[in-house]
Amino acid sequence: MLTDTSNNIKITRATESEIPVIEAILLDAVGWLNEAGQPLWAASVVKWDAISTFYQPSDFYIAYKDGIPSGCMAIVDYDPFFWPNVKKGESLFIHKLAVMKSARKTGVADALMEFFINKGTETGVKTLRLDAPAFRSKLLAFYERHGFKCVGTKTLKGERHTAFYILTLSNNILAQNKSSWNAIADSFFGVTALPLYGCLCPTEDDLHLFPNLSGRRILDIGCGSGHSLKWCADNGAGELWGLDMSDAQIKNAGDFLNESGCAPKLFCSPMERNPGLPLNYFDVVYSVYAIGWTVDLQETFNLISSYLKPGGVFIFSWDHPFLHCVDAADEKLIFSGSYYEAEPFTFCKGENRQNVRRGKKDGSYTVPEEGVPMTLYNRRLCDYINALSSAGFAAERVVEETDKDTLEREAEFSSAYYAPFKAKHFPMSIVIKARKL
Ligand SMILES: C[S@@+](CC[C@H](N)C(=O)[O-])C[C@H]1O[C@@H](n2cnc3c(N)ncnc32)[C@H](O)[C@@H]1O
Questions:
Q1: DSSP strand E in 341-389: where?
Q2: Ligand 1 mean position to 254 CA, how many Å?
Q3: What is the distance between the alpha carbons of residues 268 and 223, in angstroms, rounded to a whole number?
Q4: What architecture (CATH level 2) is domain 173-436?
Q5: CATH tag, 2-168
Q6: pTM to 2 decimals?
Q7: Ligand 1 site, residue 246, Cβ cutoff 6 A
Q8: What is the mean pLDDT of each run of 10 residues along the chain (437 residues)?
Q9: Ligand 1 atom with least separation from CA of 253
Q10: Ligand 1 midpoint to CA 296 (Å)
């Protein structure tokens, strides 16, 4: 139950006995929308006979303002008609959001949306979803005001032009990823660390992106087990600072670096927040295969920019954005995904991310049932470059290369996510060096 005391609104889950209340609210909404020349549903569609084909009474929530039924909505955890690729329980969906004419502009609609968002947070789902007629600009603006983002439009059966909206619950994603990184920290001990930048790509020994580190103040974002910081120490760095949101990684990094005779300053925090790092302080900030985990790229780059001195350098590596679009089948590489796909997707470490991301050939999705689920976003190259630019950086070098050894060797056909066969045709990783202006 939600109580909005300032507006005297109470929202409760509907019971069987409240079916007439739901019907009355929906019919009232049909009436005033028709009067306003903005028809949405036919009266026959909102009669309980019709509604009960899709919903139980307990799917509905009713808003009472000053004790009077004023609005309602249905919340379900499965919507195969509008979102066929989203497995039951992965997301929550809202339908039949309606407000009585007498309750317009009284805060009821806002209270219902707030309730929906709180419910998503409590349930732990990573996204909330809804669909709406694409031509209803006021309604779409209302959803956008509550943080929903349009992820596409489609003309469905009956020529209904429908807009699809998602709200990402970033804190739920961070909580899930943190717990999963804690579970697998030990198996990532020293796996992705400088001078390596990533998979089958040139190393720092080939690229020479770092300035002379002698006496410099260095910050590692997503420092993992601390092996990259050790590399910085070996190259003369003056101060070693690291940030990672996994307590297990921070513990491993602390133990490893202290045993190696280093005295790092380590922070257990998501990169989307400043846990107390000094501003305008660092000469170099870098991140080896961690930036892509951020739930807020722009905020992360803004923070990194704020930590750097003017003229300071930021270097990071991550999967090349093509990687999630290319499948390998029948000895061929096929550009079968969409470079534009920006929805967060959940996978288990070890699974082939392409299958997870786009659904398998039979249309089903591989959703983690065991192991360590993690949620990621696909981003385009322009997303990184534009976010850098907005954060006050100039990109100095973008590396899209496969290492020489892989290019020169024979490679057998393989559909593995990171495969030499693929790397001979396009880079598996990108490395970007930028400078704070
Ligand atoms: C592939 S590992 C990188 C390992 C590291 N570069 C090394 O040298 O060992 C990714 C790291 O990012 C961390 N991470 C994931 N999401 C994060 C977030 N939102 N904020 C901070 N760290 C995050 C994980 O805990 C993990 O240690």
A1: 345-348, 373-376
A2: 15
A3: 10
A4: 3-Layer(aba) Sandwich (3.40)
A5: 3.40.630.30
A6: 0.88
A7: yes
A8: 74 97 96 89 92 96 96 97 90 96 94 97 95 92 96 80 95 95 93 94 97 98 98 98 98 98 98 98 98 97 98 98 91 91 79 47 36 90 98 98 96 90 95 98
A9: 9
A10: 15
